[in-house]
Design a protein that fits this description.
By secondary structure, the chain is an alpha/beta fold. It is built from 8 helices and 5 strands; from the N terminus they run βαβαααβαβααβα. It has a 5-stranded parallel beta sheet, sandwiched between helices. The longest helix has 19 residues. The two termini are 13 Å apart. The structure holds shikimate-3-phosphate. Shikimate-3-phosphate binds next to loops. Shikimate-3-phosphate (S3P) binds next to loops.
């Protein structure tokens, strides 16, 4: 079983993913961490030293490698499914894509003090988030197989998702 979590920065892909993988007893992979380990650089360093386009290329390369696994919960990056080719790669690998849908205001609150995400290190952060969110929302919807209302605490959501996945409801 390959489960991919997608959605905006701060929607809980990593925390829900980690809990979900634990409950389902399968491996958890965070794509950003996977890339950071391979490159021996942080995402911020990759953006600064090599540029965003190179980071996006590394994401596609990572997906191809990860789709060779038998089973895993994979937390994608917030921009991963903006590239339809990445969505295609996930589907070719028989992964099911879940969109963790969290309201804009909650994301703005969760991300207000973030120092790690290169796209957010700008003035007017609330506006930057709003613009990006509006540009991306429909693409998350289009990319996913299942949309999850994901405003609730991550452990509760992971438990609920695991139960529904086991029952083949989602
Ligand atoms: C990005 C989201 C980040 C990371 C990179 C770019 C994006 O992942 O991949 O900073 O374009 O939204 P998270 O969603 O895990 O923060």
């Amino acid at each position: 079983m390959k489960i991919v979590l997608c959605g905006f920065m701060g929607c809980g892909k990593s925390s829900i993913g980690r809990n979900l993988a634990k409950i389902l007893n399968i491996e958890f992979i965070d794509m950003d961490n996977f890339i950071e380990k391979k490159e021996e650089l942080t995402v911020s360093e990759i953006f600064a030293q090599k540029g965003e386009a190179e980071f996006r290329r590394l994401e596609t390369e990572a997906i191809k490698e990860l789709m060779e696994k038998d089973g895993a919960v994979i937390a994608s990056g917030g921009g991963t499914v903006m590239n339809p080719l990445n969505v295609e790669e996930f589907h070719k690998g028989n992964a099911k894509i879940y969109f963790l849908d969290v309201p804009l205001a909650a994301l703005q609150e969760r991300l207000k003090n973030d120092r790690k995400r290169p796209l957010l290190q700008k003035p007017n952060r609330r506006e930057v988030i709003e613009k990006l969110y509006n540009e991306r929302y429909d693409k998350y919807l289009k990319a996913c197989d299942v949309r999850i209302d994901a405003g609730a605490p991550s452990l509760w959501l992971a438990k609920r998702m695991a139960e529904k996945i086991r029952n083949n409801e989602i």
